[in-house]
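hey so u asked for the seq, here:
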Amino acid sequence: MSGLRKRSVLISGHQTSVSLEQEFWDELATIAANRSLSINALVGEIDRARDGDSNLSSSLRVHVLEHLRGGQAEDPTPAPPE
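ran it, structure tokens below
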């Protein structure tokens, strides 16, 4: 896994910095593109949905993890016979 990469994002008209590993930024970009959103819009949605006890970077990582877990659970491709 790569080191942290800090990026500026615009949330509700306010700019903030978020540090995530490049792999998480890549997956957030994929999720956003699949939903026809900008990364800023996706991050804004995640920010609005998080509880006050979690920081934004953690919420973004958990969102990616939940997305990936959900995608695997919904995979309609049957497993090959053993």
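The chain is about 50% helix and 20% strand. Residues 72-79 have pLDDT under 50 and may be disordered.
lmk if thats what u needed
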